[in-house]
Design goal:
Strand order of the largest sheet: 7-6-12-9-10
Order of helices and strands: HHHEEEEHEEEEHEEHEEEEHEEHE
Length: 310
């Protein structure tokens, strides 16, 4: 029986140790040394602001909850709820007006403010955690009607999908969108947009897939012949049961009556699949008793009470 000489034993040990280091050490070296170096060269991971393109176009407003993250400054990072005045409280900068800004704009603003007085080369990332300020009201023949929060640019088809979709067998041919004017045009009348639902859903004409704006009220009528739809400046817009002999003034009163901003002299009735427009001056009926202005309604009519111009 041959025994290994000490020199041979040492040679075997060194060879085994080299192979062991190569097999186990290379992955450890990659994990512990090379990967951190690559990560450092690449900079911080993309934030929610960079990954969610919707955030970059969304304009912040009261009620929205945002996260302000200051790189390597946990004491300055926090969640903020935008106040009714459109501000957030962010020490050490205290109150910051943010309403109307995008997350990118707000991040740049906070970065500049911190860099001017408190930090050297700060990195600030802003992301939206809860959307509350941009809402639309969807009523009518969808599985889930109600208030919906917009999370950026939203098209009509996307909103209908969120509401559970629509069936052409159950809805009428049009959608009516009542769009309020921006604050700088608040004295102008609200815009009433009629969308050809058949052209959009059946024919695939995407020109009708319009962008939805904050504050829109969207009404989707059904094919049922026992309903009317009262929209615009009334206390309780929506659909109401049709009754034989019902007239336009009585229908508006069923909806709670006109609001203070209503223009009763420019009421419109949209009738039939072709959306024939019938103009009604209810002021003449209310103030002068002109009975011919109180027009009888038909099933499926849309009554639109516009905003007055002051």
């Amino acid at each position: 029986m041959r025994f290994w000489a000490p020199s041979e034993t040492m040679h075997f040990y060194r060879t085994f140790r080299a192979i062991w280091r190569l097999w186990l050490g290379a992955p450890l070296y990659m994990y512990c040394c090379i990967m951190p170096a690559l990560a450092q060269e690449q900079g911080p991971r993309p934030t929610a602001q960079e990954n969610v393109a919707e955030d970059e176009e969304y304009r912040l407003g009261p009620g929205d909850v945002i996260e302000v993250a200051v790189w390597q400054q946990p004491d300055l990072s926090r969640f903020c709820t935008i106040t009714d005045e459109g501000k957030i409280f962010l020490p050490p900068l205290m109150e910051i007006p943010v309403a109307g800004m995008t997350t990118r704009e707000l991040g740049a603003h906070i970065t500049a403010a911190l860099g001017k007085q408190y930090l050297k080369d700060p990195r600030v990332f802003v992301s939206i955690k809860e959307y509350h300020s941009h809402e639309v009201l969807l009523l009518g023949h969808v599985p889930r009607p109600g208030l919906f929060k917009l999370k950026g640019r939203t098209k009509l088809l996307s909103l209908l999908s969120d509401a559970g979709g629509v069936s052409m067998d159950q809805v009428g041919g049009q959608i009516v969108i009542v769009r309020a004017q921006p604050e700088e045009k608040s004295k102008e009348k609200a815009e009433h947009i009629v969308v050809d639902l058949k052209a959009l859903l059946v024919e695939g004409d995407l020109r009708h897939n319009i962008e939805i704006k904050a504050g829109d009220r969207i009404f989707i009528p059904g094919r049922a012949q026992n309903a009317i739809y009262i929209l615009g400046e009334v206390q309780n817009p929506g659909n109401y049961p049709f009754q034989v002999g019902l007239k336009v003034f009585e229908a508006i009163m069923m909806a709670g009556g006109p609001t203070q901003d209503a223009s009763t002299s420019r009421v419109r009735i949209l009738r039939g699949e072709d959306q024939e427009t019938i103009r009604v001056n209810l002021s003449h009926f209310i103030k002068r008793g002109k009975m011919d202005e109180n027009i009888p309604l038909e099933p499926g009519d849309f009554i639109i009470v516009p905003t007055g111009i002051f």
